[in-house]
Amino acid sequence: MEIRKKLLSSIPAVDEVLKSRSIESLLEEYPRTVVTDSIREYLNEHRTEVLRGGFDNDNIKEPDIEYFVTGIIKKVEATMKHRLVSVINATGVILHTNLGRAVLSEEVNEMLIKIASRYSNLELELSTGERGSRYSHVEEHICRLTGAEAAMVVNNNAAAVLLVLSTMARDKEVVVSRGQLVEIGGSFRIPEVMEQSGAVLREVGATNKTHLRDYEGAVNEKTAALMKVHTSNYKICGFTKEVSSEELVELAAKLELPTIEDLGSGVLIDLTRYGLPYEPTVQSSIKAGIDIVTFSGDKMLGGPQAGIIAGKKHYIDKMRKNPLTRAFRIDKLTLAALEGTLRLYYDEEKAVESIPLLRMLTLTLEQLEHRAEELKRKLEAIIGKSCSVYVTDEFSEVGGGSMPMHKLPTKAVAIKTHSISADRLDSRLRAYKIPVITRISRDAMLLDIRTIMDDEYDTITEAFEWALMENQQEK
Ligand SMILES: *Cc1c(COP(=O)(O)O)cnc(C)c1O
Predict the structure, then answer these.
(1) Which atom of ligand 1 is nearest to the CA of 229?
(2) Residue nearest to atom 1 of ligand 1 (CA)
(3) Angle at Cα 52 formed by Cα 49 and Cα 53, nearest 5°?
(4) How far does residue 158's CA lie from ligand 1's centre (Å)?
(5) Which stretches of 10-111 are assigned E, i.e. beta strand?
(6) Tens of pLDDT, residues 196-210
(7) Which has the minimum average pLDDT: 173-187, 211-225, 419-433?
(8) Taking all residues of the chain, what is their mean pLDDT, rounded to a whole number?
(9) Backbone dihedral region of 129: left (phi > 0), alpha (psi from -120 to 50 degrees) or beta?
C-alpha cells in the first residue's frame, strides 16, 4: 500500500507535463486539445493501473515526467493518424467489399481531384444559366450505353431497389420468384427491402423452379409489377427453371403490368469474349423490354458506389419526384467518378485496359505468371534467406457477390518461413504503414498477383522486410 501511495502522489499534473520539453515540441506538430486530452487519458490510465496494484512488484520508484512522455507521444500519434488508408489487396478477391470494392481508373482519379477542389456545374445548365439536374451529367451516357430511355442514379443499388419499389408498388403487390429472394451481405434482403418500401411481396414458385404460369396465377387487382432479381451471390443447380426476361415481359404486356429487374452487378460488356461465364448485361435486359433495371456502380461496372436505375421515362420521372430521391442523392465526387467510368465504356478495348476491375478480370495466365515471377524475384532478394518464396497455381474470385461459382485460375507468390507463423506474419503485414492484406492457405502465405497493382511490388517487399525485422526485435 505504501508503494501505491507513493506512486500515486508522484503522478504529475497535466500542466506540468505540458511544460516539459518533449511535449512542447509535440505541440508544434499536433493540436493542443489532442495533446492535452492524451496527457490526461494517459495519466488516468496510469493511475488506474497503480490502484489495481499493477506496479506493486515493479521497482519503479517515483517516476519523473520523462517516464510518461513516450506513452503520451504514442497516444497522440495514434489519435492523429489517418484511419482510412489505402491498402494492398493481395487476396485475389477483385471486388472485396471490405477493401472498398472496385478501384477507380487513372482517368477518373484526375477528374475527381478537379471536381473536388473547385466549383463545378453540378446543378447549373451552362447553356442557359438556369438550374440544372445533377443527374443530367450521367443520364445520357447510361442511356446511350444501355439503350434505356431514361436513367437516374442514387447512393447504392440497395437504395435504387427501395426507391423503385416505393415509387412503383407502394401498398401494392410485387410478384417475385421464391428462388430469387436474395440476401446480399450487410443485411440487404429482398423481402425486407420490399417491406421497407411499402410494397407487399408475393412469392411464387418453388426454390428451384418457377414457371411463367406461377407469375400469372399470382396476379390480381392489387398487383403493381412483376419482378426479377439476379441471384448474384448464389446459384441453384440441378433440377431448376427460371423465367427469362423476355417471357416475363411478354406476360406483363398481356396483363398490362410493368416489369422490374434487379441485376445486382451491372455488366455492360459481353464477358464471354474474355473466356468468362455469361453474365446478363444491362443492355440485354433493356432490349428484352424490362421497364426498370437497377444495378450497382461499384460491382462489375468497376466504378464508384452508386445505384443506377435505367428504363422507361415515365417511371423514372415519377422516381425523380419521390422524396426518397433527395435522401438517396449522390454527391459530386460520385457523379464525377461515375461519369468518368461510363465514358470509358464507349470503347470496349479502352474500358478493359483502363478500368482496373476489367483489367484484373481479363489478365491472361501468361501475364499473371510473368508478374508473379517478378514479385517473387524482388521478395527473394530481400527475404530469401529466411523464407522460401515460390510461385504457385491458385484461384482468384470476382467477389462482391458476383460470379460466385467462378474460380479464376491465377498465379500467387507463396511465402513460407519457420521463424514466424503465417498468422503472425499476416498480422504484422496488416500493421505496416501501407497494410498488405494476404490470404493464408495450408500454412503458406499467398499473394495473389491478380489484385496487386503494378507499382506495389516494392512496397510489398518493404512490408515483408519490416514485418520480419519487427518479429526479430520482439523475440
Ligand atoms: C449487390 C446487390 C444489391 C445491393 O447493391 P449495393 O450497390 O451493394 O447496395 C442488390 N441486389 C442485388 C441482386 C445485388 O447483387
Answers:
(1) 13
(2) 264
(3) 95
(4) 6
(5) 88-89, 93-95
(6) 999 999 999 988 899
(7) 173-187
(8) 93
(9) left
pLDDT digits (tens, 9 = 90+) for 324-337: 999 999 999 999 99
Q: In degrees, to the nearest 5, what angle opens at C-alpha 404 toward C-alphas 182 and 233?
A: 10
Atom nearest to 265 CA in ligand 1: 15
230 CB within 6 A, ligand 1:
yes
- pLDDT of 143 > 70? The answer is yes
Instruction: Say yes or no: CB of residue 188 within 6 Å of ligand 1.
Output: yes
**Phi/psi at 390 (nearest 5 deg)?**
-150, 160
Cα 185 to Cα 97, 154, 182, 280, 303: the distances in Å are 9, 19, 10, 21, 19
d(CA 212, CA 379): 58
Check if the beta carbon of residue 239 is closer than 8 Å to that of residue 208: yes
Residues β-bridged to residue 308:
153, 295
For a mutational test of ligand 1's pocket, the pick from 95, 260, 296, i.e. the residue with the most ligand atoms closer than 8 A to its C-beta, is 296
pLDDT at position 472 is 64
* CB-based contacts of 278, cutoff 8 Å, min separation 6: 270, 271, 272
What DSSP assignment string belongs to 339-379?
Answer: HHHHHHTTSHHHHHHHSHHHHHHT--HHHHHHHHHHHHHHH
199 is written with which cell numbers?
Answer: 410494397
Helix (H, G, I), strand (E, B) or coil at 387: strand
User: Which residue, among 116, 12, 90, has the nearest Cα to 336 in the 3D structure?
Assistant: 116
Residue 2, exposed/middle/buried by CB under 10 A (0-12, 13-18, 19+)?
exposed
Which among 302, 305, 378 has a CA at the least distance from the CA of 335? 305
pTM metric for this prediction: 0.91
